[in-house]
Design a protein that fits this description.
This protein is of the alpha/beta class. It has helices spanning 7-16, 29-34, 37-41, 59-69, 86-90, 101-114, 132-145, 165-168, 176-185, 200-206, 217-221, 229-234, 243-259, 264-268, 281-291, 300-307, 311-317; strands at residues 22-23, 27-28, 50-55, 76-81, 119-127, 150-158, 190-194, 212-214. It has two domains: 7-234, Aldolase class I (TIM Barrel, Alpha-Beta Barrel); 243-317, Four Helix Bundle (Hemerythrin (Met), subunit A) (Up-down Bundle), CATH 1.20.120.1460. It is built from 17 helices and eight strands. Helix 4 (59-69) links the parallel strand 3 and strand 4 (76-81). Helix 4 (59-69) packs parallel to helix 6 and helix 15 (281-291) packs antiparallel against helix 16. It is an enzyme of class 1 (oxidoreductase).
Length: 320
């Protein structure tokens, strides 16, 4: 998610789930080629497994971005063909590429030619007046022939004109069944689903039909939903989340970031929704939202925020 799932967010989420595949925010190929590569591509080793999501429509530029990113050690490269924002459309990439499946296929082929990790595609079921029953298979046939290793499908159309990015996440109706049918028609292809999934119980239901679940805003707005992921989906032993340890790790991480010239707010902003719905959560949010932005704010703000939360209630909420 652009401007949201940066390296600080991913480090935080990794403290809650050891196994979930984390995605970067979408990074434009041109930015990697011409921009501040270290800032755009570097990440903490503890973030693994982590996928780099790219935006672009020029096969040569995407291939060059993959080459540049290779030494950083990402576990997957993903091409975004689903983002509907205006600034993405103006660059001729994101969801508007669903109108040109041949270009998407050429991009995938170019990326595959230089990548040493899986190359995947994230898309919508269609855009604008497209018939998803025709548009989605047409796109998938082309990108799979080009070598795509997996497909992630946001189970909504995107409307390129007339709806904001927020409205595109809410107004077009969800059609999970078309994603299920896509998997049935391609039993040997990894098909993952995205869109509107709020709980791990819903995720488990989807896994009866597809191979993977992608959580976006549900995980960002209340990261505690990740606390039972390792046990529920990866076979890890059931254990209570040690929120005190997570607090200490985030304080140490924030201290390192500040020592390197960063600000506490850059880390803390991703933690605001952690204890949504629990006793003390309102005070927790207030502390992180107001005190973390003050000049000279340090890790002690994180400690104060965590001190306001009923941790017993947080444990009881795990797995909801």
């Amino acid at each position: 998610m652009i401007d949201w799932t940066d390296r600080h967010c991913r480090y935080f989420h990794r403290q809650i789930s050891r196994n979930a595949l984390l995605y970067t925010e979408m990074v434009v190929a041109d930015a990697i080629i011409h921009g501040p590569r270290e800032r755009l591509l570097s990440f903490d080793a503890t973030e693994h497994p982590v996928a780099l999501q790219l935006g672009g429509s020029d096969p040569a530029k995407l291939a060059e971005a993959v080459r540049i990113a290779a030494p950083y050690g990402y576990d997957e490269i993903n091409l975004n063909v689903g983002c509907p924002s205006d600034r993405v459309q103006s660059g001729t990439f994101g969801a508007c590429l669903m109108l040109t499946p041949d270009i998407v296929a050429a991009c995938v082929a170019a990326m595959k030619a230089v990548a040493d990790v899986p190359v995947t595609v994230k898309c919508r079921i269609g855009v604008d007046e497209q018939d998803p029953e025709a548009a989605l298979p047409a796109l998938l046939d082309r990108v799979l022939d080009a070598g795509a290793d997996a497909i992630w499908i946001h189970a909504r159309k995107a409307w390129l004109k007339g709806l904001s990015p927020k409205e595109n996440r809410e107004i077009p109706p969800l059609d999970y069944e078309i994603v299920y049918r896509t998997k049935q028609a391609r039993p040997d292809v990894f098909v993952g689903i995205n869109g509107g999934i709020q709980t791990l119980a819903e995720a488990a239901d989807h896994l009866d039909h597809v191979d993977g679940i992608m959580l976006g805003r549900a995980a960002y707005q209340n990261a505690a939903v990740l606390a039972d992921v390792d046990h529920r989906f990866y076979g890890a032993a059931a254990e209570m989340t040690d929120w005190g340890t997570i607090r200490d790790r985030m304080m140490a991480y924030a201290e390192r970031h500040i020592a390197n010239g960063g600000r506490l707010q850059q880390v803390a902003r991703h933690m605001v929704g952690l204890f949504t719905g629990l006793p003390g959560a309102r005070r927790y949010r207030q502390i992180l939202s107001t005190d973390a932005v003050k000049a000279g704010a340090g890790p002690e703000v994180i400690a104060a925020a965590f001190a306001s939360v009923d941790f017993e209630g947080a444990r009881d909420a795990v797995g909801a």
